[in-house]
Structures are given as structure tokens and as C-alpha cells.
Amino acid sequence: MKVLIIGSGGREHALAWKLAGSEQVERVYVAPGNGGTALEEKCENVPAGLGDPASEAGQEALAGFVRQAGIGLTVVGPEVPLAEGIVDRFRAVGLAIVGPDKKAARLEASKVFSKAFMNKYGVRAAGSRDFIDPAKALDHAKDHFSGPAPAPLVIKADGLAAGKGVVIAADLAEAETCLSSFMKDGALGAAGSSVVLEEFLEGKEVSVLAAVSVRPGSKGVIKPFVSARDHKRRFDGAQGPNTGGMGSIAPVPDFTAAAQKDFETAILQTTLKGMEAEGMDYRGFIFFGLMVKNDRCSLLEYNVRLGDPETQAVLPLSDFDFAGLCAAILDNTLEKFPLTWKAGAVCAPVAVADGYPGAYRKGDPIAVNEAALAKTGARLFIAGAEKVTDTVLRSSGGRVLAVSAWGADADQAWARAYEALGAVSFEGMAYRKDIGRESTSSP
After folding, report:
1. Count: domains in the chain
2. CATH code, domain carrying 46
3. Beta strands 2-7 and 27-32: pairing type?
4. Using N-to-C axis directions, what is the helix angle for 322-330 and 10-20, rounded to 10°?
5. pLDDT averaged over the chain?
6. Co-location of 176 and 277 in the same domain
7. What is the pLDDT averaged over residues 247-259?
8. How far apart are CA 230 and CA 81, in angstroms?
9. Which residue in 321, 348, 405 sits closest to 73, CA to CA?
10. Which residue ranges does UniProt annotate as crossing the membrane (predicted)?
11. How high is the pLDDT of residue 440?
12. Range of the domain at 286
């Protein structure tokens, strides 16, 4: 079988690596891919010029490529093509594709829709209100901060905002600035024209990725993967600006069996009930972003795809055929598919370019001491780098790569990951030194 992966980041490199390892898969194409997917065994990037997979023209071109190349399965990495209906378009012409349809993708594409869904079906989550009127939103913020010791206020843009749509306002001035930027100045375009104002939850963040097989008129299934944790702040100790993710670990040591059970009861099962009741066609993956305190879980958000960089930590622990999992999702046999996991832990710190998450350097050659890297057993998942030759990559993005290392326990995984980072270098390379050592607590 030939497979197409849509996307260009570290998540897509990890997916390409995992799918290429399947005996069922003869070739993996990645659109548009990156320097890492171009060099991965059994993988190649699709021809240039097919267009944006989030646009109608790009989706039509990709569908044509799938038919021409005889590709039997497409897996979608990022959220925007899903929100723009690529699954609907592919299925309309009989192409097998893993992901939710456009209707179901609103669980991520619209925070207002998502919160309404949570409330309707009893998914435990932070209390919230949504607004389309800037003045009313500001009045709500004023009321919130009028008490003697108010908690921060979480402000979320309704639409997709490339990770820039959530602000934790510590006081009224910060809230007013954010609301004006989102709703009046159009800093996020249409994504910020309506907002959700949400209570601030304390605890530790945990990510749970899961496989989903739900279709109208039949009983659905959601099967969770091992837990993971992303570290979003740029600097050690969870300091500095938020990023797309500075590294991840799996599983999460402080995510107890009691917390797992609470998650499955209060969040996973209620989500499944809602998907079935809404008649969703959701055959893909979902990300549950949780806040956990005293083994009690609350849902912060849904993502309608696998997380990045969590995927780079979770997939190396998987002990099953990923192509087989995708087939089970599509043919309604997920309930019987065994999700088996390797013992141990993975730590996956991310190396970023100088200046990230602001303006950052590009075009720097990446040097890899292959012998030193092999000694650790770690592997590189490329996010923002392009192929120069068969042995040379150069940086092209803010998050350049993740080093994913397995260990018998979290301590050994951490030690191997940072030893492996020492085998990689490029001008201005930077990374956090506490991935897996710092428990994130910001929503």
C-alpha cells in the first residue's frame, strides 16, 4: 500500500517514520513534507506545485495525485485542511482518508462551538461565556476583575489562530488590551471577531491523544494513547512567551491511574456520547488537552488531530502497526484493534532557531554527529529544515527539530535525550534543559 501524509512539521516526520515501518506500506509520500521526510527511508515529498492543502484547488490537486499514484490511504496532520473540508472532498470521490469531516472539525476550528458541545453533553470543563460584542466582553472582564483578589481570565479567540489565540490576562488592563487587539484591531483576522472568556484552572497540564471511529448511525469508539505532556513556554522553568512546543514527554509520571479513570469517565465517554448524538463522521485522531488537579481532570480544549510535539514522544512508544490502526479507524473495527505500548519512557526536547518565537534565523546548516547520536538510540524528527543534499539539512523554521529518546524510565530517557542533543548543532541553536523536569501548570 502507498500512503500520503499531509503536513510539513515534526509530527508529520514522526508519522512518516512510523508508517514507513509498517510491512503493509511500500511507499510514503508527504505533502509538502520537509528535509527530514525527504531523507526518511521509504519516503519522499510530493512534487512541488500541488498547492495549499487547505484550499479547494490544492485539495483537488492532491486528490488527483492520490488517484494517479495509486495511493490507498491519506493521513492528515494539521488542523487547517481538516477545518477546510479536505476529508469531505476526498471521501466524495471515494478516497480513503483519516480525519474528521468539516462538521466534526469544528471541535477545534470554533471555540464557541466546542464549548457549547462540552456544556450540552456534560464534558467537564472550565466555565465560560462567549461574546461577539467587544463592549459586552469588556464588561464581563470588568466584572471578573472587580473582586478583591480575582484569578486571571483566560481569553480565547473563537477561530483557528496558529497558536496565537489564547491569552491569560492577569489583570483588567491586560484583558482590555487583548480584547481590543482581537475584536477591534483584527490582529487575528476573522478568528478573533468572537471570543470565549473562560475561568482560569489550576493544576498540571496533560495531553491525551486518541484514535476515533465514529460514524452516523452506529456505535462509536475512542481509544486513548499513553499520556503526554507538552512544555510550551520558551525558557526553563516555564518562563517567557508561549511557543508551539519546546518539547514533550510520554507517559506523564504524575498522571495516575485514578486520574486516567476520571478522564475516561468525565471527558472521553461524554465526548463520545456527544459525537454519536450529533451524528458526526469522525474517523481520525483527537487530542484532549487536560488540566489535572487532585486526580480530577477538566478539559481545556480539543484538537481534531494528533498533537505536535506530543506525537514525537508518543509514537516511539507504540508497539502496533500504525497502518493497521488507520485501517481499523476507517472500517469500524477500532474496538478490536489492540493498542499495545512499549515499557519505558520517551523524552523529546525541541531545538529552536535563535530568536524564536519572534523573528528567527534561517538557512543555517545542521551538523549531526551520527556516531554520537546512534550511541544514544535517539532519533531526529525534523520540523523546520530543508534538504540541501542527501547528507545536509539547513534550518528553515523556528522549531527546527526534536530529539526523541527512549529510556527504561523517565530519568534515563531525559539523560539520553540531552546527550543526543549534544550530537546536533547549528548556528544559534537553543533549547530548554528541563523538558520532563518541569510540570506545566498554565492553561
Report:
1. 3
2. 3.40.50.20
3. parallel
4. 100
5. 96
6. no
7. 98
8. 23
9. 321
10. none
11. 54
12. 204-425
Grid cell at residue 410: 523517565
Q: Say if residues 215 and 221 touch (Cβ distance below 8 Å).
A: no
- The answer on 307 and 209 residing in a single domain is yes
Residue 248 and residue 185 share a domain: no
211 & 312 share domain: yes
Does residue 243 contact residue 344 with C-beta atoms inside 8 Å?
A: no
CA–CA dist 318, 313 (Å, integer)? 10
Least confident of 19-23, 159-163, 180-184, 329-333: 159-163
Q: What is the pLDDT of residues 52-95, one digit of tens each?
A: 999 999 999 999 999 999 999 999 999 999 999 999 999 999 99
- In sequence order, the 6+-apart residues with CB closer than 8 A to the CB of 412 are 344, 345
Is 410 within 8 Å of 347 (Cβ atoms)?
Answer: yes
Tell which residue, 213, 289, 214, has the closest CA to residue 252: 289
**Interatomic CA distance for residues 380 and 287, integer angstroms:** 23
- 369-396 confidence digits (pLDDT tens): 999 999 999 999 999 999 999 889 999 9
Report the pLDDT averaged over residues 410-427. 98
Same domain, 228 and 185: no
pLDDT (mean) for 318-328: 98
C-alpha span between 297 and 255 (Å, rounded): 10
% of the chain at pLDDT higher than 90: 95
Share of the chain above pLDDT 70, in %: 99
pLDDT value for 442: 45
Classify residue 386: in a domain, yes or no: yes
d(CA 371, CA 392): 16
Backbone angles phi, psi at 246, to 5 degrees: -95, 5
- Say if residue 232 is in the same domain as residue 370: yes
In sequence order, the β-bridge partners of residue 110 are none
Helix (H, G, I), strand (E, B) or coil at 17: helix
CB 251 within 8 A of CB 345: yes
CA atoms within 13 A on the CB side of 408: 0
Mark 300-309 as b/e (b = at least 16 C-beta within 10 Å).
Answer: bbbbbbbbbb
Q: Grid coordinates representing 293?
A: 488537579
Asked whether residue 439 is assigned to any structural domain, the reply reads no
Above 60 in pLDDT, residue 443?
A: no
**Residue 122, CA distances (Å) to 15, 27, 196, 277 in order:** 33, 43, 18, 13
Q: What is the CATH number of the domain that holds 148?
A: 3.30.1490.20
Residue 290: in which H helix or E strand, if any? strand 282-293
**pLDDT given at position 164:** 87
Question: Mean pLDDT over residues 186-205, rounded?
Answer: 96
